[in-house]
């Protein structure tokens, strides 16, 4: 993830400029991200680590669908322990969700061939569709 000024918003005292995907998300998602970022900046300073911490907090309640974040059916990180296990995060896709849920998300994103995909293939296809939708929305 880039540093502020290179893709990440600059944080002004008392105010957070939200990333575009969060600006298009429900108000609660914006509040979760802002509160977590403010707290993380107090602990780590305004940099990559603070932004990663804020996104980790957001992923406990929300998952990325297209160009925005939507509430998850259950709380918990979407990619619990991925980095500890040496794997990449799932970019906001709830990889711990059921295949049926992932199929619903894939249907919403109009992913071709979704019914024949395995769960890990659905996660990858959703990540790709999310990146595309975010690029188009910017």
Textual characterization of the structure:
- With 138 residues, this protein is mostly helical.
- The protein folds into 2 domains: 1-59, no CATH class; 80-138.
- Helices cover 46% and strands 9% of the residues.
- It contains 5 helices and 4 strands, in the order ββαααββαα.
- A two-stranded antiparallel ribbon has the order 1-2. The chain has a two-stranded antiparallel ribbon with strand order 3-4.
- Strand 3 and strand 4 form a beta hairpin.
- Helix 2 packs antiparallel against helix 3 (48-59).
- The chain is elongated.
Count of beta strands = 4
From the N-terminal CA to the C-terminal CA, the straight-line distance is 17 Å
The number of helical segments is: 5
**Major sheet strand order:** 1-2
Radius of gyration: 15 Å
Task: Tell me the domain tally.
Answer: 2
Give the helices and strands as they follow along the chain. Answer: EEHHHEEHH
pLDDT averaged residue by residue = 83
Helix content: 40-55%
Shape: elongated
Q: Quickly give the structural class.
A: mainly alpha
Largest sheet: 2 strands, antiparallel
Features:
two-stranded antiparallel sheet; elongated; 5 helices; 2 domains; mainly alpha; 9% strand; 138 residues; disordered N terminus
């Amino acid at each position: 993830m880039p540093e502020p000024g290179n893709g990440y918003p600059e944080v002004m005292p008392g105010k957070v400029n939200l990333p575009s995907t969060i600006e298009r998300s429900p108000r609660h998602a914006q509040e979760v991200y802002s509160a977590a970022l403010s707290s993380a900046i107090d602990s780590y300073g305004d940099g990559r680590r603070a932004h990663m911490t804020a996104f980790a907090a957001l992923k406990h309640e929300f998952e990325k669908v297209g160009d925005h974040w939507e509430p998850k059916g259950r709380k918990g990180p979407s990619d619990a322990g991925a980095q500890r296990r040496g794997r990449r995060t799932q970019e906001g896709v709830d990889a711990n969700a059921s295949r049926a849920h992932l199929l619903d998300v894939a249907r919403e994103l109009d992913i071709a061939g979704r019914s024949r995909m395995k769960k890990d293939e659905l996660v990858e296809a959703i990540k790709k569709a999310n990146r595309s939708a975010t690029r188009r929305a910017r």
